[in-house]
Amino acid sequence: MIRRFRTPIILVLIGGFFLFLAVYNIHREEPTSFLRKLIVEGAVKLRYLLDYPLKSAKEAWQKYIFLVGVTEENKRLKKEIDRLLAQVANYREAYEENKRLRNLLKLDEELRLKHLTARVIGMERKSPVKAMIINRGSSHGVKRNDPVITDRGLVGRVIEPSWQVSRVLLIIDETSCIDAILQTNRVQGIVQGTGRGCSIKYVGKTDEVKVGEAVVTAGISHVFPKGLLIGYVSRVDWREGGMFKKVEVEPAVDFSRLEEVMVIIGQDERK
Amino acid sequence: MMFLTVPLALFLLVVIQNLLADILFLGRSPLELSLLVVIYLAFRMNLVRGGIISSFLGFLMDCLSGTVTGIYIFIYFTVFSATHYIAHHLYGEGDWFIIFLVFFWGVVESFFLLLFKSLPTGVFCLSKWGELLFPQIIPLCVLGPFVFRALDGLGFIYGVNERSSERT
Q1: pLDDT tens for each residue of A180-204
Q2: Does A7 contact B47 at a Cβ distance shorter than 8 Å?
Q3: A15 min Cα distance to partner chain B (Å)
Q4: Domain range holding A194?
Q5: Please, which residues have CB within 8 angstroms of residue B6's CB and are 6 or more apart in sequence?
Q6: Is there a contact between B160 and B49 (Cβ–Cβ < 8 Å)?
Q7: Residues of B in contact with A20 (CB under 8 A)
Q8: Is B161's Cβ below 8 Å from some Cβ in A?
Q9: ipTM, 2 decimals?
Q10: What CATH number does residue A190 fall under?
Q11: Measured between beta carbons, which residues in chain A are less than 8 angstroms from residue B51?
């Protein structure tokens, strides 16, 4: 009898082992294994090699086929540059003023935002884990849970640092949870990814939340520094009898246009 | 020789399928050719070699898709074992049968992916199932029979027609 069912029993046992492995790893926060790092690094290098001829062909197409209208585009861009330069001058003035005020308040800006600039080399918004790959890894000082931001706001956090590259979990992923606070009325909640955007959990029915209000990090869990912009409230919903409001958040960052990001390092020092 | 070339070929497959998805669907939808390969192996390979290769392919998918180690290994091993069992008892290998199998395993796979994803948060969102399922399952169903024929052409390199000879 057992002999007859030997093969299915072995298969079920092996399958059960793999299932156990998956469930065990979900609840474990261990550093990325050597083999995993090796495969990710290899894949990034191979992808770069395979992308190269495609990019070259695309560039050639853009350079030679779409030359029509370049002069007009050039004129428009020059005007845009002038406008942006004026804008940058204004921002620089404000930045200098801000710096002076911070110095007055004896805030050590360097310690608060020790960062690295990284280039986005892969985007996985449609894979089971909504993530992206950046060209900075543990050899540059990147560690697990380091926040990743842009000038527009929060992008996510590092979940898998390899040697030269790292995988960053985007805030729109369903497993991403961030302690957040509404900027004006200081209502606290947890921002969770919904796949396309985010939503704030645990906002009480009596809390006043307005559409368009900025949502920033609360800095409670020590993963994200306080005050990073996450996004803006896009919809507020409350069902009769419900304890919490349903608050949808539009991320401040446009993930489809990400090219360069900043990784905030030195988390341990801050803690 | 096979132990050296097969892992490399599988690695290449996983990288190329991501590249193809970016070119064909502009990164809006994944193209999981590896699932088709696992189903194909279940038809053509013996249990031990096919099981090892499917698990390795699952491991590569875990590494490159960012899921924790074990999720894709479990899914691919299950797909391989069950399809192997089905292929052993049903001698159907027509295009519609392949399309049905690909569709069925695509549904099961996306269900498991959602289930594993809901474990840390404790929220299982069934509406996400359709979002995850249809953009990738339809291209896979269409490609299924063609991939089977293409792999049959390449199969002799790795001796994957062991099962065909077992049957006769």
Answers
A1: 998 888 888 999 998 888 999 888 8
A2: yes
A3: 6
A4: 177-254
A5: B53, B56, B158
A6: no
A7: 70
A8: no
A9: 0.82
A10: 2.40.10.350
A11: 11, 14
